[in-house]
Amino acid sequence: MRGGDVGLEESFPIGERLIKDQQIDVSAQALRHGANPRSGPRVVIADDHEIVREGIRRLLARMRPKWEICGEAASGGQTLELVNALKPDVVILDITMPGMSGLEAARRIAKLNLECRVLIFTVHDSEWLKSEIRDTGAHGYVQKSQVARDLVVAIERLLEGGTFFSNDAPAERHQDANSRQESKQSET
């Protein structure tokens, strides 16, 4: 390490360990972040850019200090390992990561039948993408350009059992897929 550089272990303890040696030590990760299993919702942040994970972590710590960032991953494969090991309430999942994409990771997380809610985090926006995200079993997405406005609200919606798809009408953000189907059936 050069003079003045901050080591990754100090700044990004979980992400650095996963990147460095691909090993997951769940108890050590939880201790590094001062984890308290009963402190609030548990969140995993998955993005291949350390600076993005750090930004999300700081935003959530400032806006919802009782939420626990229980793990961080830099790839889809690492995300699956963390979800299996940590059983978080919510995963914030970048769509474009090395190896396995966020969309594929979301599909696999959905197949695990856990109580984990998946929020895709992306720079992209299109009707096709919204459809793809819904098809993976993810519960919503937030555009990176709207993170300050939408991220906390989106996570709260997911924790309430709803969905959040950027640019949807506000009422649709509160309903999950089953609620939308029930209302369509009652209309017929």
Essential attributes:
single chain; 188 residues; alpha/beta; Rossmann fold; six-stranded parallel sheet; 10 helices; 6 strands; 50% helix; 15% strand; disordered N terminus
List the helices and strands and how they pair.
Layout: H1 8-11, H2 13-21, H3 26-32, E1 42-46, H4 50-63, E2 68-73, H5 76-86, E3 90-94, H6 102-111, E4 117-122, H7 127-136, E5 140-143, H8 147-159, E6 164-165, H9 170-174, H10 177-187
Parallel strand pairs: 1-2, 1-3, 3-4, 4-5, 5-6
Helix pairs in contact: 5-6, 6-7
Structural summary, described in words:
The longest helix is centred in the first third of the chain and has 14 residues, at 50-63. The protein has a single domain (9-187), classed as Response regulator (Rossmann fold), CATH 3.40.50.2300. A six-stranded parallel beta sheet has the order 2-1-3-4-5-6, sandwiched between helices. The protein has ten helices and six strands, in the order H-H-H-E-H-E-H-E-H-E-H-E-H-E-H-H. The protein has helices at 8-11, 13-21, 26-32, 50-63, 76-86, 102-111, 127-136, 147-159, 170-174, 177-187, and strands at residues 42-46, 68-73, 90-94, 117-122, 140-143, 164-165. Residues 1-38 and 169-188 have low confidence and may be disordered. The radius of gyration is 17 Å and the shape is globular. By secondary structure, the chain is an alpha/beta fold. The protein is 50% helix and 15% strand.
